[in-house]
Amino acid sequence: MKATPVDRLFEALGDPTRRAIVERLSDGAASVSRLAEPLGITVTAVGQHLRVLEGSGLVRSEKIGRVRTCRLEPAGLAALEQWIAHCRRTWEKRIDRLADILGEE
């Protein structure tokens, strides 16, 4: 089965290190080495996590000279927001139907 954008987002956010990177980037752009410092992991390991985050559309990075700077891409959450909204509508309809059924008895 082919991974959907929502699958990639859940994969990206399913890892605590990647969630920590996203939280850090919510404060503003940062270099890979700055992201690695508080995590206690290597720059290479951060780079691997960033590839997953970039693949999900949550993070964008650019390299200028020797420094790779990363920033959040808020539009990357759109697929997840749409999925959550769809699930909410579905469950609200089901709950309404259940209330109707219980109200009839």
The gist of it:
This protein has 5 helices and 3 strands; from the N terminus they run H-H-E-H-H-E-E-H.
List the helices and strands and how they pair.
Blueprint: H1 5-13, H2 16-25, E1 30-31, H3 32-39, H4 43-56, E2 59-64, E3 67-72, H5 78-104
Antiparallel strand pairs: 1-3, 2-3
Helix pairs in contact: 1-4, 2-4, 3-4
**CATH topology name:** Arc Repressor Mutant, subunit A
Number of helices: 5
Distance between the termini: 43 Å
Please trace the helix and strand order, writing H or E for each element: HHEHHEEH
How many β-strand runs?
A: 3
Strand count, sense and barrel status of the largest sheet are: 3 strands, antiparallel
Q: Largest sheet, order of strands side by side?
A: 1-3-2
The share of residues in extended strands comes to 5-15%
User: For the CA atoms, what is the radius of gyration?
Assistant: 19 Å
Overall pLDDT metric: 92
Can you offer a commentary on this structure?
The protein has 105 residues and is an alpha+beta fold. The protein has one domain (5-104): Winged helix-like DNA-binding domain superfamily/Winged helix DNA-binding domain (Arc Repressor Mutant, subunit A, Orthogonal Bundle), CATH 1.10.10. It is built from five helices and three strands; from the N terminus they run H-H-E-H-H-E-E-H. It has helices at 5-13, 16-25, 32-39, 43-56, 78-104, and strands at 30-31, 59-64, 67-72. Strands 1-3-2 form a three-stranded antiparallel sheet. Helix 1 packs antiparallel against helix 4 (43-56), helix 2 (16-25) packs across helix 4 (43-56) and helix 3 (32-39) packs across helix 4. The longest helix has 27 residues, at 78-104. The model has no long low-confidence stretch (mean pLDDT 92).
